[in-house]
Amino acid sequence: MRFLLQLFSRCVSWLQRKGPRSPSKSNPERMLIPRVLAPDELVTRYIYSERNIRKSEKRPKRGAFDPSPHMELSVVHSSGLTETEVWELGEQTKGSTPGRRNIYARADIPVQTLTDLKLRALRDDKPFIRHTSVIDWPLGSDGNEAKALWLQICLELSEDHRVRLEFPVVPVVHS
Fold it and tell me: How many domains does the chain fold into?
């Protein structure tokens, strides 16, 4: 019994050292533990290619939501941000990744829409503050079935009336 108490004590001590720490003073918004966003929150998907936009209908195309190849969709948690802050956050998403020089539009997606499709939005703040991954894409029995399921979900997202496509007032271009 004494051994178990010592083990428990060491585990508690280790968890206190490795567990969640208070947010840094330089960036109080920094999340240290990934969390699933609530259905009443909002995420934003930046669109870096004009081919993923149906301008005449002011709708994103299904390709804007493709989770390939990592089975997750990179978005940002945009709840509580002003229009200006959402576009400024888009600047951080561009990074040096090829094909991300310009932002042509953004799709604002209520998390409830994702939940209705049996997906979850997991805010992890990696590689930047407010980064969120849309996860739980269906696997299917093989690669072809998975791709067909993903395409159906992407199509539903692109057609959902709750998903809003917004265009920047001033183009967000490579600087």
Answer: 1
Helix, strand counts (H, E) of the chain: 4, 9
Radius of gyration (Cα) for the chain, nearest Å? 19
The DSSP output letter for 103 is: B
In angstroms, the CA 98 to CA 11 distance is 44
90 in a structural domain: yes
Whole-prediction pTM:
0.78
Helix boundaries (H) for the chain: 2-18, 83-94, 111-116, 143-159
- Look up residue 38 and give its DSSP letter: P
Q: Which residue, chain included where needed, has tokens 């990744």?
A: 97
Q: Report which residue type is found at 128.
A: F
Is position 140 within any domain?
yes
Domain of residue 154 covers 34-166
Phi/psi-derived region of residue 152, left when phi > 0, alpha when psi is between -120 and 50, beta in every other case? alpha
Q: Is the peptide bond before 39 cis (omega within 30 degrees of 0)?
A: no
* Residue 172 located in a structural domain: no
Question: How does pLDDT run across 52-71, given as a tens digit for each residue?
Answer: 999 899 999 999 999 988 89
In a domain, 147, yes or no: yes
